[in-house]
Write a structure and sequence with these properties.
Recoverin, domain 1, single chain, about 65% helix, secreted, 7 helices, odorant binding, about 5% strand, binds 2-acetamido-2-deoxy-beta-D-glucopyranose, signal, mainly alpha
């Protein structure tokens, strides 16, 4: 099942088809199923993410880095602005592309301050949320 979902996700990437919010949520669920156990993160730690509550704990931070890796928005172990813009253009619903790219641009330099990929993923995501909570979604 997981493999089928991953294959479907990669197919979406390959065909440049944007996703609906429902597809994004389903893809997010699939990513969480893979990243949550890998990082020993509990539901209590992860569920608040969607309300913009970022718990500063290793499990949460590394979970976020895992999700970003799966979403192809990391390069060389750090969140990558160009990769994220590319993914936003490819995948997000039309009305979300511009606001998402604005938030990414506003947070472009945040990862520079952190060596650790988990720290960088955590702080860049927090920055994106603070910039525009209305478009924020985290699986
Ligand atoms: C998760 O917990 C297991 C068992 O306690 C441990 O062996 C593993 O190293 C932990 N993984 C991470 C990423 O912390």
């Amino acid at each position: 099942m997981l493999l089928v979902l991953i294959a479907k996700f990669l197919m979406l990437l390959a065909t440049c088809e944007t996703m609906t919010m429902k597809q994004i949520r389903n893809t997010g669920k699939m990513m969480r199923k893979s990243c949550q156990p890998k990082n020993n993160a509990t539901d209590e730690q992860l569920d608040p993410l969607n309300e913009g509550v970022f718990i500063d704990e290793k499990e949460v931070k590394c979970y976020m880095a895992c999700i970003m890796r799966m979403a192809n928005t990391m390069k060389n172990g750090e969140p990558n602005y160009d990769a994220a813009v590319k993914q936003a253009d490819l995948l997000l619903p039309e009305e979300m592309k511009q606001p998402a790219k604005e938030a990414l641009f506003a947070c472009k330099k945040v990862p520079d301050d952190y060596k650790d990929p988990c720290d960088a993923a955590f702080h860049v995501t927090k920055c994106i949320f603070n910039h525009n909570p209305s478009i924020f979604f985290f699986p």
